[in-house]
Sequence to fold (238 residues):
Amino acid sequence: MSEHAKFFCQSCGKAYTWKPELAGKRAQCKCGQMMIVPPQLDAPKPQTSYDLFEDEPPAPAPHSIPPAPFPTVASPVRQPLPEVAPASSNTRKTILWTILTLMVLAGASTGAFFLIQSNKKPPIQYKFEDQAITRQLDGSPHLEIKAFLENPLFSLMGMTTAQAQGFAETLYKMGARNIYAFNGRVSRSLVVELPDDRAQRQQIIDHYNRYHEGMSDVRQATDEGQRYLKYRLKIAST
Fold:
């Protein structure tokens, strides 16, 4: 068959050039119609479909364009470095004053830091029951025992007003600095602030131990340099 043989679309009648490699294969016309390219006896069995295009004149051979020469890069011209004028005397003075000021400030900051550290109070070393008693005094309203007993609504547990006054008077005579009762209709404890005198302290400590003798929940006190003693008042005073 001639290389210029034509076959036509059965739908729109458009003509296409027959090519051996398309013989017997399914093709699609530009109008969308599917068709079979006329077979040839020696053509291979079709397996896939291809789009067909109209004959077009061969594209002209591109003109050969000589490659453009690479641009030459000129060596950079080194520019002379600008001359730096020497620093004036005023500039040098300003720099020196700045350095000195920074050194003075740094020294002052360091000195202040060490001064603050040296002035820090050492942590309180609580002795005996001082820590618990201090918390109770800070967290609970309390009055000096004489002011407390002036209120007719207040009393000490297990004591009449006369007994409470006598109890407080005994401790004050021993050298107690202060005696505190806790606000409320009935105060269940007393806090005694101990004096500095060693003999007086020991006298109050001995009184404290005698009062609590037989009370298993109260340990016997010794002079550990503590500030307070807390009396746990009994239901009935003896």
Summary: The CA atoms of residues 17 and 55 lie 7 Å apart. Residues 130-232 form one domain. Residues 41-47 have pLDDT under 50 and may be disordered.
